[in-house]
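We include this case.
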Amino acid sequence: MGSLKEVKNRINSVKSTRQITSAMKMVASAKLHKAQSRIENMLPYQQKLNEILTNFLSTDATFESPYTEVRPVTRVAVVVFSSNSSLCGAFNANVVKKLGETLEEYKSLGKENILIYPIGKKVEQATKKLGYTSRGNYQGMAEKPSYVQAYELAGLLMQEFVEKQIDRVELIYHHFKSMGSQILTREEYLPIDLSKVETTAATEGSGKRGFQNDYIVEPSVGQLIADLLPKVLSQKLFTVLQDSNASEHAARTLAMQTATDNANELIQDLTKQYNKSRQQAITNELLDIIAGSLK
């Protein structure tokens, strides 16, 4: 059992740590609230866009789009979303692990044919450790999600796909489901799977009034669908960016809450230890006084 001074110093140290974790939890919680508001404001636009596209796809219109072309994969791009800072539990570790699994699957293509676009400092550092070169610096996007930056990145990916510089684009990110649940997701971004768009729109629009095909479309439905696809792809990337950002703040809030709770438990245990040591010291002093008086 440590001395009274050592135990007291440790109690003060844990209390200082608790103040830090408690403050970080409050900051993360405030950022999470803002991130949730941004997602809620964005969802109606995304749902309507998917709804329009889905209902046009349900017609007999024929169209051609380079974004739906499925071809043998000889070069792949992986866009990975993480945070810039730590102290958010296993958030970044899970992303890096999933990235490692993905790279292992494409190992036969060779490192030069695997392009990694890291959104966040942590995954950028992991990319270097894995022996790959990052395709640009996107740390600002992870810190403050921007539609303009997401639009530019989506445009770059679409251009490289159309020019056949890459044959597939995959996304790795955390989907924000709730405060206590962030689902690690890996999905195909290009070529776009229109059946998934239809399924998503059907799920989001369940219980809503049916779509009325009362549009007059110029020059044709097929051309409109082809023009809508880039907007859907740009919106998708921005949605994923918002998802990852909200998931990061939720994970950090939970991690700091857990750390604060652990600090409280440790303070209680150390306080008990301090009181026992103090009691023992007082008892020893009393025994010495009594023993001295009996001589």
